[in-house]
Amino acid sequence: MNNELLRKLPKIDELLKEKEVQNAIDYNPRVLVVEALRESIDMFRKEILSDKIQSLEKNQVLNYALNLLSKKNRANLRKVINATGTVIHTNLGRSLLGEKAIENVVTVAGSYNNLEYDIDSGKRGSRYSHIEDLIKKITGAEAAMVVNNNAAAIMLVLDTLSKDKEAIVSRGQLVEIGGSFRVPEVMKFSGAKLVEVGTTNRTHVYDYENNITDSTGVLMKIHTSNFKIYGFTEEVSLEELVSLGNKKNIPVVEDIGSGVLIDFSKYGFTYEPTVQESIKKGVDVVTFSGDKMLGGPQAGIIAGKKKYIDLMKKNQLTRALRIDKMTLAALEGTFRYYLDEAEAIKNIPSLNMILCSKEDVKKKCVKLKKKLQNKIHWLELTIDSDYSMVGGGSMPTEKIPTYVIKVKSDKLSPQEMEKELRMGEVSIICRIFNNELILDGRTLFEKDFDTIVQCFSNIKLV
Ligand SMILES: *Cc1c(COP(=O)(O)O)cnc(C)c1O
Predict the structure, then answer these.
(1) Could you please report the per-residue DSSP string of 398-419?
(2) Mean pLDDT for the chain?
(3) Single pTM value for the model
(4) Which residue among 220, 235, 253, 289 is best mutated to probe the pocket of ligand 1, counting the most ligand atoms within 8 A of its Cβ?
(5) Going by CA atoms, what residue is nearest to atom 6 of ligand 1?
(6) Same domain (yes/no): 340, 393
(7) DSSP-derived secondary structure letter, 202
(8) Which of 1, 27, 422, 460 sits at a 20 to 30 Å CA gap from 453?
(9) In CATH, what number is assigned to the domain containing residue 324?
(10) At residue 88, what are phi and psi to the nearest 5 degrees?
(11) Are residues 301 and 177 in the same domain?
């Protein structure tokens, strides 16, 4: 420990008189400036106490504080660059919005709007009216509404149709999604009694039928979107369930999870059931997420028979689960693209990235590699083929052929490089595989290439 250095440690009051600090106070909240100064002093005190430094200048403390200050001024929720290749990355905010959706959000966020005002009649309107016709047109459903997310949608559906009654579900479909959503637990919250039928690998239509009683509220089908089981398996098809439901006069509810609205098998992907198909097969109510394969904002969409949707609109729970004007604006913009499939694919970033050809991804990689090579001379870069994932618990077995840039350096290990890129001014989130740092071109945007180069050049080599 060095007493002399400790005495040299500046006091806050002293630093506050410095010109740079006065200047900083003019442009930043004073409370953050003081906090940064205090943290900087504390940091240097610790360094002295543990004999980590042998000299100290006031400027060091000042510069460290100003650096802290610039970090404190950044938004906590902020942009990152997704180099993982996982398109619908739940940790990174799932889907990005298309331009129309963003425009709509910006407009309604900063202006009064007709959220609950019917312009034609000059009377109070419904917030759901702005979106219901669009969803009906696109999915073929009789009626629709939207809530906060798909978990909320399922809660509302069960609360409305199966409160204090039994909801019959196959054991093979009791899924957990991302830790925070477990079908059995959501059902418990709703007050529906879960009746599990069949086995993990096989459930037959008679398993449902034999368990129907006077207190059965719904027959439920859940799309096992984030895992697949193979081998000796059997699932009851939606058609069979619908025909049983019709026979017994019990509504059939399907949680389709991701909410696919275009047939991906046309584009070489394994077949994923679409919302339109469920409606066509006669499902009474189907629910899906807004921010997975649909490519919109966080929301839960409920579509189906009008008599059931009407009951949900009247349920008091709807008030607690209702979505905000910004979400509605984004959802409308997203759904409008779906009026023309080609437009949807072109303009909805999640769809666009999933369907981007391997060759187009390669072109992006080549461009970025060139930019990096021109500026950052300590990197060793190679382009290689690899696989991207859809993510968001959607299409779990789908490996999308892609191209990646593999980054090596004799200056930094892949782990050190990953950390530097993550902790930089703009975070780049990458993956490490086989001790190599990997940037997947699929989830990168050309507009970010200069930023990416800047992030690499900000790395200080020791
Ligand atoms: C993702 C998912 C949910 C949860 O949806 P959120 O919109 O995240 O609430 C529910 N069920 C299935 C099958 C899912 O894939």
Answers:
(1) EEEEEEEEEEE-SSS-HHHHHH
(2) 94
(3) 0.92
(4) 289
(5) 150
(6) no
(7) B
(8) 27
(9) 3.40.640.10
(10) -100, 85
(11) yes
Instruction: State the pLDDT confidence band at 378, using cuts at 50, 70 and 90.
Output: very high
> Are 253 and 317 in the same domain?
yes
Domain limits at 50? 2-72
Q: Per-residue pLDDT tens for 118-150?
A: 999 999 999 999 999 999 999 999 999 999 999
Q: Quick check: is 462 in a domain?
A: no
Cβ contacts of residue 306 below 8 Å, gap of 6+?
142, 143
CA-based diameter of the chain, in Å? 89
Instruction: Look at the alpha carbons of 48, 49, 50, 51 in this order and tell me if their dihedral is positive or negative.
Output: positive
Q: Of all atoms in ligand 1, which is nearest to the CA of residue 151? A: 9
Number of domains in the chain: 3
Q: Are residues 113 and 149 in the same domain?
A: yes
Lining ligand 1 with CB less than 6 A are: 149-151, 177, 181, 222-223, 225, 255, 257-258, 289, 300, 393
- Report the alpha-carbon distance of residue 393 to residue 221 in Å, rounded: 17
Q: For residue 378, which phi and psi values (nearest 5 degrees)? A: -95, 10
Answer yes or no: do 446 and 326 share one domain. Answer: no
Asked whether residue 400 falls in the same domain as residue 434, the answer is yes
Give the end of a domain, one of 320, 347, 374. 347
HSE-up (13 A, CA, CB side) for residue 381: 23
Whose CA is closest to 144, among 343, 339, 332, 345? 332
pLDDT digits (tens, 9 = 90+) for 264-318: 999 999 888 999 999 999 999 999 999 999 999 999 999 999 999 999 999 999 9
Please indicate, yes or no, if residue 15 is contained in any of the structural domains.
Answer: yes
Examine the fold and report which residue of 288, 318, 347 is the final residue of a domain before the chain moves on.
347
**Number of Cβ atoms within 10 Å of the Cβ of 424:** 16
Which ligand 1 atom sits closest to the C-alpha of 258? Answer: 15
Nearest to 350 by CA among 92, 151, 112: 92
Mark whether 86 and 102 lie in a shared domain.
no
Residue 32: CB atoms within 10 A of its CB come to 15
Which pair of tokens denotes residue 260?
């696919």
Are 242 and 220 contacting, i.e. CB atoms less than 8 angstroms apart? no
Block residue for tokens 């090596």: 408
